[in-house]
Amino acid sequence: MNSPTARSNTHENGSLVWVDDPVGGLLLTGCGGSDKGSGDRQYDVKGKVVAVADDKQSVTLDHEDIPGLMKAMKMKFRVEDAKVVEGLKPGDSVQGRLKVKSGDYVLTHLDKR
C-alpha cells in the first residue's frame, strides 16, 4: 500500500494540510497557526455527495468554493452526528453548514437541494 501524500496550503486561519486517504477522499486537518477569536466560525457549504462512510461519521463532498475559507475541491468531512448524512447517497446535491473551531472542520447540517 502506498503511503499517504500531503500538501499544504495557507489561508487566513493558519496552515491546512490535505491528506489523501486510502479510499480516495481527502482529510483536512489544521496545524500550526492560531485561531482568531475563541468562537466557532460557521460557513455555508454547497456541493455533491461523492461518498457516505459506512459508519456515518463522515461524508465526501465535491464542494463549491467556501468563501473566506477554501476553494472548491473534493474533500472528506467529519459530521457532527450520523443524522447529518441520513438519507444521503452519492450523486445527491446538498447544502449545509460547516463549523470551524481550532482547526477542526465539522459538518453540522446537510439538506438535499
Total of DSSP H or I helical runs spanning 4+ residues = 0
CATH fold topology: OB fold (Dihydrolipoamide Acetyltransferase, E2P)
- Widest sheet, order of strands: 4-5-6-8-7
What gross morphology would you assign?
A: globular
Which class do the helix and strand fractions yield? mainly beta
Structure, described:
It is a single chain. This protein has 113 residues and is mainly β. The chain has a single domain, classed as OB fold (Dihydrolipoamide Acetyltransferase, E2P) (Beta Barrel). 0% of the residues lie in helices and 55% in strands. It is built from no helices and eight strands.
In short:
The chain is mainly beta. Helices cover 0% and strands 55% of the residues. It has a single domain (6-112), classed as Copper binding periplasmic protein CusF (OB fold (Dihydrolipoamide Acetyltransferase, E2P)).
Sequence-ordered SSE layout with sheet pairings:
Elements: E1 6-11, E2 14-20, E3 26-31, E4 41-52, E5 58-63, E6 73-79, E7 93-101, E8 104-112
Parallel strand pairs: 6-8
Antiparallel strand pairs: 1-2, 2-3, 4-5, 4-7, 5-6, 7-8
